[in-house]
């Protein structure tokens, strides 16, 4: 069993709330005990668990919440049953517990509100987490809300879609935002979204939808891609092939398996 212990460079946060997002995904709202933590959308924190015998396990988790809310940092964790850290969060961590963390961490995979750009966000599975921080920042920041944005989001089934309700609300409330879902393994009856893995045609379509949003004179496209390694590599290749400047394609890889 892991506990919590402080060291130089690491801080302690208390768990303010735990929210179930899907059958195997939960969000943990962390309040840093040292006070609010400034960060940029797209960054992550490292968390560290320490067992009574001193054994430690450390993992990275993207921040899901908006930088406009620095006093409460949300992380969203997918359960991997054979894992070390994610089962601890899912089966053990409760409101009131203390968690050791350090951060914020991460440079290139960040987005600050900037007018005159368009956002193409491509997420696979829990790779949607840092993209959600960007979308929440886009809503919370007056500067950013005029930035047209498309989220292309790949999930295994409709039961695996994280933040489903909030994404639907964001899409419905904002004519400059479009959320495109694709389900790779099973689609429910009446599903009108995409039904396959992200491919070149799908990214081309998403780019076309993005081009139709906002002012016709547009602005350069910034593309952020996050998910399993193979998903990220393929999606980045498609983005560059479709003409997005390579320096405008930012990637973050979460882990080894495919969506
Ligand atoms: C920058 C960064 C940000 C991240 N943000 C998030 C996040 O927001 N939410 C989140 O859920 N995860 C995120 N991850 C992944 C996270 O750090 C862990 O790797 C993941 O939670 C598994 O840890 P574990 O200890 O439970 O499993 P482990 O004990 O590390 O691994 C158990 C098994 O699962 C496999 N595995 C490890 N990681 C993954 C993975 N990501 N996907 C599929 N299989 C895997 C391993 O090969 C092994 O077979 C992020 C990773 C990075 C590098």
Task: Output the strand order for the largest sheet.
Answer: 4-3-6-1-2-5
Oligomer: single chain
Give the helix tally: 5
Spans of at least 5 consecutive residues whose pLDDT stays below 50 are: 3-8
Q: Structural class, from helix and strand content? A: alpha/beta
* Tally of DSSP β-strands: 11
- CATH architecture heading of the largest domain: 3-Layer(aba) Sandwich
Mean pLDDT level: 93
Choose one word for the global shape: globular
Number of domains as seen in the coordinates? 2
CATH H-level superfamily of the largest domain: Nucleotide-binding domain of ferredoxin-NADP reductase (FNR) module
What can you see in these coordinates?
- There is one protein chain.
- With 259 residues, this protein is of the alpha/beta class.
- It folds into 2 domains: 11-105, Translation factors (Elongation Factor Tu (Ef-tu), domain 3, Beta Barrel); 117-253, 3-Layer(aba) Sandwich (Rossmann fold).
- It is built from 5 helices and 11 strands; from the N terminus they run βββββαββαβαβαβαβ.
- It has helices at 85-91, 128-140, 164-173, 200-212, 229-241; strands at 11-22, 25-32, 44-50, 56-62, 73-78, 98-105, 117-124, 149-155, 177-183, 220-227, 249-253.
- Strands 4-3-6-1-2-5 form a 6-stranded antiparallel sheet.
- A hairpin with a 2-residue loop joins strand 1 and strand 2 (25-32).
- The longest helix has 13 residues, at 128-140.
- The radius of gyration is 18 Å and the shape is globular.
- It starts with 10 loop residues before the first strand and ends in a 6-residue tail after the last strand.
- Residues 3-8 have low confidence and may be disordered.
- The structure holds flavin-adenine dinucleotide (FAD).
- Flavin-adenine dinucleotide (FAD) binds at residues 44, 59-62, 76-78, 80, 82-86, 126, 129, 228, 252, 254-257.
- Flavin-adenine dinucleotide binds next to strand 4, strand 5 and helix 1.
